[in-house]
Design brief:
alpha/beta; Helix Hairpins
């Protein structure tokens, strides 16, 4: 069982493992996780900073209702669309989900492309967000990216890998420059990655964006604006601000699609760089052999 004080890995009679499946956007990790969950009686914990938000479905490639009916998913639709959500909140909820899943003699499968979320669990980061001064955090929330970067430089902190993401910049400041680095994985963890070649990823990203627009992405964003207004701060969910520009008439539909594809590709490159830093990841080809490799390792663990 997970003990958030002692930070011990949960355990069960059957598979005392937590399986992580990581990789960039459109790498096929969700499909692999679904098939694996079917084969080993698993449930999925989504390590994604955007699918945790309600009403952001199409533009975040959230698991379909059919997938959720087949396999139970955790940490989807947890917060309102514009609410803040920290890595600390993710870890607390993910640990609770792991405990719940293993108490029912099933295997947790953590799936996602948000590297900081993955690392917080896999490397069992010690997070002390409860000690943060909320007034100070609210002031930081109002600053621009340039202003946040300047604070980090003035304090001689190490700039986060994604220095254009205000959430990462604020996290660095609130942690006093500490990186939470830990080289020891959580006991019982197995981690696998999918990383197709660049050409394949580009094709998949282009296809995914086209499918999103065909599925009603513009209507989803219009509904979001109608119900919740405009976000008060920059959205991390890549496509939504772009479609808002289309709604405002700043760009046409083809320009919006291309901007989304380009932004997706840039994010994918950052994801690939992040996961390359973890030497423990077993990289798999996205084919039928991947399932067999994982199952054999789980059984022999």
């Amino acid at each position: 069982m997970v003990n958030r004080e002692k930070r011990q890995a949960p355990a069960t009679k059957y598979h005392p493992t937590i399986i992580f499946i990581v990789g960039p956007t459109a790498s096929g990790k969700s499909e692999l996780a679904m098939e694996l969950a079917r084969r080993i009686n698993g449930e999925i914990i989504c390590a994604d900073s955007q699918t945790v938000r309600k009403y952001l479905d199409i533009g975040t490639a959230k698991p379909s209702v059919d997938d959720q009916n087949q396999i139970r998913h955790h940490l989807l639709d947890v917060i309102e669309p514009y609410d803040s959500f920290s890595v600390n909140q993710f870890k607390v909820l993910a640990c609770e989900a792991i405990e719940d899943i293993q108490s029912r003699q099933k295997t947790p499968i953590v799936v996602g492309g948000t590297g900081l979320y993955i690392n917080s669990l896999y490397f069992d980061y010690e997070l002390e967000e409860s000690k943060i001064n909320n007034d100070f955090k609210q002031k930081l929330d109002q600053l621009s990216i340039i202003e946040l970067q300047e604070i980090i430089r003035n304090k001689n902190f190490i700039m986060p890998e994604n220095k254009e993401n205000p959430r990462h910049l604020i996290g660095t400041i609130l942690r006093g420059g500490k990186t939470n680095q830990n080289d020891t994985p959580l006991s019982g963890s197995l981690i696998y990655g999918l990383q197709p070649d660049d050409e394949t990823l580009r094709v998949r990203i282009d296809s995914r964006v086209e499918s999103m627009f065909s599925a009603g992405f513009v209507s989803e964003v219009q509904k979001l604006v109608e119900d919740f207004g405009r976000p008060i701060r920059r959205m991390d969910a890549i496509g939504y601000p772009i479609v808002m520009r289309y709604i405002d008439g700043d760009v046409n539909i083809d320009e919006a699609k291309q901007l989304f594809k380009t932004a997706h590709w840039q994010y994918t490159r950052r994801q690939k760089s992040w996961f390359k830093l973890n030497p423990n990841i077993t990289w798999l080809n996205n084919d039928s052999s991947a399932i067999g490799i994982i199952i054999r390792e789980v059984k022999s663990y």
